[in-house]
Every structure is written in structure tokens, then in C-alpha cells.
Design a protein that fits this description.
76% helix; globular
């Protein structure tokens, strides 16, 4: 039974990753319902985490954080520090646009979980890589371009240790790098953003592709945004739809899947 719940949970997360957020949420909610129906209290952490992911990527940050807090409660009871580290990383991402101080505290806590794991001889390279990615994005939010580049260099080294083939994380890294260039007024960033967008599309990641396409348009928003992109975002990606309707030069956050 626990294996079935696990399969349903990660299938739901895959749906969230490719941009089918509502389908992913239904799958994660079904997996969580199974934990309730069959009394699998300690198995409920990951379905709740994926529900939090889906809600956050759809712009419902209040309910997302509530789901993540409940996931953390389950992980704490199960002494699952890996789960707790991922909760801190995702909470930090959702807090980043409006509570940078809180974001820093959450990333610091995730790093403490990571150091405890390393002290036990465990290797959490994916947690370490996500932490470097989030640090880079926080630095971008603060216009700390040198710090952002240092975090990206750290991430690049980690990805080479994990595997030469980590396409999603490498595209996320390229998106942050291109957004750093756009933030500094580099018109050539549009070329890099289009390449990132195409990379996401090839992997079937519709949501991240829409985020990259929106950023590409923001390089020169003097023209109307592509109508096809507007329709897609109005239907599925409200955060991008809002940016397409208002443009603006303020910080435009990236939520990594």
C-alpha cells in the first residue's frame, strides 16, 4: 500500500512539473486521501508536499504554505530530515518575492539539515544543488549579481558531480543566468531565454517554458506579447498572465519545479 501511495505521489509531481498542475493536484490529493483512509499517517508527508508544490505554482501561496506546514509536521514526527529540508527549500521559494529575510532563514535551516546529513556520511547532492539554485535566485532578487554568479558556479560544479545529464536543473541554471543578464539591461538575453524556453518545451515542461517565454518578451515589452502565450497563461499560469498584462521592471520571481 505504501508503495502504491508513493507511485501516485511522484506521478502527481511529474504532472505538476510538466505544467499539468490541476491534474497533479488531483493525483496528490488522491494519494493523501489514501493515507487517511488506510491510516498511513507517516506516509502522508510527501503527498502533502506535492499538494503544496502544485498550489504554489498556481499562485495560491497561502494554502500552499499551509500544506507544507502540515507536511513538515508529518516529516518531523517520522524523523525525516530529507523531507524537512525540501519543505524549507520550497517554502523559501514561495516566500522569496515578499519576505526575503524569512527566505534566508528557511534556506539556512535547509542547509543545517544538509550539514547534519553530511556529518552522518550521507550525500544529498540534489538538496545541495537545489540550495545553490535558490541562493542564486535570492541573490538575483537582491540585485547581488556577483553573489548570484558564485551560486551558479557552485551549482554547475554540483551538477557535474551528480551526472553530466541533468537537463531540468541545467535549464533552471540557464534561466537564472539569462534573467541576470536581462535584469542588467542586456538585450541579447532574449536569445538565451528563447533557447531555455525551447529546452523546456522539448522536455514537455509547459509551465517553465511559459515562464522563459514571458521573460523573453520582457526584454523588449514595447510590442504586445504573443497572443498564443497570453491565452496559454490566462488558462493555466496566472503568475505569468499577470506579468504579461503589467510588464514592469520589478523583480520577476522564478518558481523552480
Amino acid at each position: 500500500l505504501d508503495g502504491l501511495i508513493e507511485v501516485r505521489t511522484w506521478r502527481a509531481e511529474n504532472l505538476v512539473q510538466i505544467g499539468a498542475v490541476q491534474s497533479g493536484l488531483r493525483g496528490a490529493e488522491g494519494a493523501f486521501a489514501d493515507t487517511v483512509d488506510f491510516g498511513r499517517w507517516f506516509t502522508a508527508g510527501w503527498p502533502l508536499f506535492v499538494i503544496g508544490e502544485g498550489l504554489g505554482y498556481h499562485g495560491d501561496f497561502s494554502d500552499a504554505q499551509a500544506s507544507l506546514r502540515e507536511a513538515d509536521r508529518r516529516f518531523r514526527a517520522a524523523r525525516n530530515e530529507s523531507g524537512r529540508a525540501w519543505v524549507e527549500l520550497l517554502s523559501a521559494a514561495f516566500d522569496r518575492p515578499h519576505q526575503l529575510n524569512r527566505t534566508e532563514l528557511e534556506l539556512d535551516q535547509a542547509e543545517r539539515y544538509l550539514h547534519r546529513a553530511q556529518a552522518r556520511g550521507w550525500t544529498w547532492l540534489h538538496v545541495e544543488a537545489r540550495l545553490a539554485l535558490e541562493r542564486a535566485e535570492v541573490a538575483r532578487a537582491c540585485d547581488a549579481y556577483s553573489a548570484a554568479q558564485q551560486s551558479l558556479s557552485r551549482l554547475r560544479a554540483l551538477l557535474d558531480r551528480i551526472s553530466p545529464d541533468q537537463p531540468i536543473l541545467r535549464l533552471h541554471m540557464a534561466l537564472v543566468a539569462a534573467e541576470l543578464r536581462r535584469s542588467q539591461g542586456d538585450a541579447a538575453a532574449a536569445v538565451d531565454l528563447e533557447a531555455v524556453c525551447e529546452g523546456y518545451r522539448r522536455l514537455g515542461l509547459v509551465g517553465p517554458a511559459a515562464r522563459a517565454a514571458t521573460a523573453s518578451w520582457l526584454v523588449d515589452p514595447s510590442q504586445s506579447p504573443p497572443e498564443r502565450l497570453v491565452r496559454l497563461c490566462r488558462r493555466h499560469f496566472p503568475l505569468e498572465a499577470k506579468r504579461l498584462s503589467t510588464a514592469g521592471s520589478d523583480y520577476y520571481p522564478i518558481y523552480f519545479v
